[in-house]
Write the structure tokens for this entry.
Amino acid sequence: MDGMKIDLAQVPATIQLYQQTKDRMFVLARKAQTDLQIQPMGNDDVSKDVAAEFNAKNLQSTGSVYAAVVAFQARLETIIEQLTAVQQQYRLSDEGNRGKFQGDARG
């Protein structure tokens, strides 16, 4: 996870925090789609073209605000998946170790 260190006990809370942030980014992305669009100032072709160009640059290009929010959302999802995998790996390891110790105590 790019050098980030999180105490194992804090993983569930960290996942929840990242999920909440991702959910807020989803709302922000939807809001950006509507709030950042402009309507043509007039009914002429120039006004329509300017509005269309502005909307394309601000909502569809790779450098747009919308693209940045969506990219951040995707990064958060990757982090959540990685944390969940680590949590699952530790859970399985703990269960395996517990089984070994319980087996040794009976044997």
Summary: The chain has a mean pLDDT of 86. The first helix runs from residue 11 to 35.
